[in-house]
Each structure stands twice: as C-alpha cells, then as structure tokens.
Amino acid sequence: MPPDPPGGAWTYLVPLVVLGLILLRGLRTRTLRVERMWIMPALVLLAFGMMLSRLPPPRPGMIAIGLAALALGVAAGWWRGRTTTITVDPQTHALTSKVSPLGVLLLAGLFAVRYGLRDFAGAHAGAMHVQPTEISEAFLLFAVGLVCAQRLEMWLRARRMLAAARRG
After folding, report:
1. In which order are the strands placed within the sheet that holds 95-98?
2. What is the pairing mode between strands 85-88 and 30-31?
C-alpha cells in the first residue's frame, strides 16, 4: 500500500471540493461586468510577481520551460474564453456569460493533469534535474497565461458585442 501524502487526504480533498464549486459555478449563467474583467488577471499577476520576487533567478533551461508553460496557458485560456457564450440583452445591454460544457471539461481535465504531474514531478524532481519550486513556477505560469488570455478574449468579444448592440 502506498504511503499517505505528506498533507494527508486534505491534499486531495480540498482541491476536489474547490474544483466542484468552480464547476458548479461555471455551469450557471452569470452577469458579465466588462469594467471588472481586469481584476482577476491583475490579482494573478500580482501574486505571481510577489512569488517571483522571493525566488532566485531561474536557470536558462527553466526559462524555456516557463515560456512554454505560459504559451500553453495562453492557448488554453484563449480557447476557453472562445467557448464561453456571451449574450447581450437588446433592451438593457446587460451582458451575461456561460461557460460551455467543453470549457468546464477543459478546466476539470487541466486540474486532473496538474495534480497528476505535480505528484509525478515532485517524486522524480531529482531525476529530472529540477527543483520542486521550479515545477511550481511552471504550473503557475500556465495558470497566469490561462486566466489572462481567457479574460482578454472575453473582454474583447464582450466590448465588440456591446458596441454593436448600442449602435443598433
């Protein structure tokens, strides 16, 4: 029988509960406030910047891995943003959004892959010649790209739709 993870069952239970809440929340239609869409990317970038300020400069190989993780996150975020349905009420010009089932599945799949890779990479970090903090940086860069690209795509599309609704 494999040993328990260092944090016990909570290591997996808490993220699963959070994922469940995110998925349930994502399946509902929500009001979209274009003027507030910058807040989440700003918080993510701030948190990432604060984390980077406490770490030593990355090695050249890790810079390449970080850029690849960021690029993959941007691609996944842009795609997830494109699959989100945005509607404009013709009378009130109120915007609403609803994540597509594919977008929800993408998030759930990414979550599962992240935890699987995290455990594998953590157990084999020495064999891969990387530090656990470097693995965390790559995952965080992926998340930064995902959140920022998704919000940017949705913001651009929502602005165009709102302008078209106001014109006519």
Report:
1. 30-31, 95-98, 85-88
2. unpaired
CA distance 139 to 157: 27
Coil, strand or helix at 96: strand
Q: Which two tokens stand for residue 40?
A: 């989440």
DSSP designation for 4: P
Within 10 angstroms of residue 134's Cβ, the number of other Cβ atoms is: 19
The total of other beta-carbon atoms located within 10 Å of residue 12's CB is 13
DSSP string, 144-158: HHHHHHHHHHHHHHH
Q: How far apart are CA 18 and CA 122, in angstroms?
A: 22
pLDDT digits (tens, 9 = 90+) for 121-135: 767 766 767 676 777
pTM for the whole structure: 0.79
Backbone torsions φ then ψ of 87, nearest 5 degrees = -125, 155
